[in-house]
Structures are given as structure tokens and as C-alpha cells.
Amino acid sequence: MNERHAPGYSTLQITLHWVIAALVAFQLLFGEGMTNVREAAEEGATSSGVDFAASIGHYWFGIAILALVLVRLGVRLTQGVPPHPVAAPTWMGWAAKLVHWAFYLMLVAMPVLGLLTVYVSDEFGDIHKLGKPVFLALIAVHVLAALYHQFIKKDGALRRILVPAR
Ligand code: HEM
Ligand code: HEM
Predict the structure, then answer these.
(1) Ligand 1, from 119, 123, 129, 134: best to mutate by most atoms within 8 Å of Cβ?
(2) Domain spans of the chain?
(3) Ligand 1 pocket, Cβ-based, cut-off 6 angstroms
């Protein structure tokens, strides 16, 4: 897919990156609250206040992620993204692309599967839960890559997602 190349990420793109990252962290850390509330409801038991609060947060933060990622993809299409740092070997550029697109896929698929679990069938919950280790693996690779760029390549890749270029 041909991409528009921009000199760097914009303030809006950087804001969306970190707001979405924070919301995803909440979803992964406290998602079990949602599972606990649903299990308690099935057994006719009352769930704890903490689990209940986590489940409300899970529902609305999840929907916010879906809305924000759609905005983010729209912005990506119109503003473009900077090319992968040139000094890196090509396979790393491809690996970065693969991880970024896998993130976008997960950021859309997870909220959709969550909504299907609530409104269509519990069976989607099993697939939704499988998304947790996938997300964790992607984040691990992504963060290791960012640290590699920062401390070994020293090519300013991390700075691009912290300081707007325009
Ligand atoms: C990117 C967004 C999301 C992420 C990363 C995410 C992640 C998670 C995680 C980690 C769990 C707990 C899995 C476990 O107990 O092992 C979970 C459970 C659950 N989530 Fe999400 N979630 C997201 C969005 C949503 C949305 C938008 C909804 C619904 C509107 C939703 C509904 C549920 C439900 C119903 C469960 C319980 C599943 C079950 O008990 O079978 N999630 N989610
Ligand atoms: C759940 C957490 C995160 C998600 C879902 C996520 C997702 C993404 C995505 C999709 C991109 C590609 C943007 C594009 O060009 O379209 C990106 C870029 C980037 N992210 Fe993350 N990210 C997360 C956390 C982090 C963390 C914790 C760090 C730093 C340690 C980080 C550092 C970066 C950097 C440096 C880039 C720019 C890459 C480049 O210039 O080619 N991200 N992130």
C-alpha cells in the first residue's frame, strides 16, 4: 500500500497515540473486572464495587478506543506518516509496518468483539479474551523496538512520537 510520507507525526497524531495507549493499558490491566461481573451475574451473585466500576470503565473506554482509532486512521490517511528511519535495514521497516498494522487491526477488532459479546452472544467473549496475549506480545515487541531505536540506533525514533514535527 502506498503511503503518504510526512516530515513527522503531528500534535494530533501524537495525542491520539498516547491517549489510546493509556486506554489500552487500562483495558488490559482491569479487563478481568468485566469478566468477574458477568460471571457473578450468571451465578446470581453480587459483584464487588471495584469490579463493577472496572466493568463500566471497560465498556466506555473500549468504545472510546474504537472511535479514536477510526479518527486516527482518518488522520493517517490525510496527514500521512513519516517514513521508517532510513539507517535501519529493510526487514526492520517491514517488521515495523507489520506491527503497526497488527495494532490497528486489534484496536478495531477488540472493541467490536467486546460489543458482540455483550449484545449478540457470550461465545464471542472467548475470542475477545484471546486478544489479551496477542496485544501484550505486540506491545512487548513495539516497546523493545522503541528502546532499540533510542539506545542502540540513536536515530530519534522515540522523539518522533513525543515531539510534534508540525
Ligand atoms: C481495545 C479494546 C479492548 C480491550 C483491549 C479489551 C480487553 C479485555 C480483557 C483483557 C478482558 C479480560 C479477559 C480475561 O478475563 O481474561 C476483557 C473482557 C471483556 N470485555 Fe473487553 N476489551 C476491549 C474492549 C471492549 C468493549 C468495547 C467491550 C464491550 C462494549 C468489551 C467487553 C468485554 C466483555 C463482555 C468481557 C468479558 C468476556 C467474558 O467474560 O467472556 N471489551 N476485555
Ligand atoms: C498499547 C500501547 C501502544 C499502542 C497500541 C501503540 C500503537 C502504535 C502505532 C499503531 C504506531 C504507528 C503509527 C503510524 O505510523 O501509523 C505507533 C508508533 C510509535 N510508537 Fe506506539 N503504541 C503503544 C505504546 C507505545 C509505547 C509504550 C512506546 C514507547 C516506549 C511507543 C513508541 C512508539 C514510537 C517510537 C512510534 C513511532 C514509530 C515510527 O516513527 O516509525 N508506543 N504506536
Answers:
(1) 129
(2) 11-160
(3) 24, 27-28, 31-32, 34-35, 38, 58-59, 62-63, 65, 107, 110-111, 114-115, 117-118, 125, 128-129, 132, 135
Task: Identify the CATH number of the domain defined by range 11-160.
Answer: 1.20.950
pLDDT of residue 3: 61
Tell whether pTM > 0.90. yes
151-161 as b/e, with b when 16 or more CB fall inside 10 Å? eeeebebeebb
Count, residues in the chain: 166
- Tens digits of residue pLDDT in 89-133: 788 889 999 999 999 999 999 999 999 999 999 999 999 999 999
Q: Which residues pair with 5 in a beta bridge?
A: 81
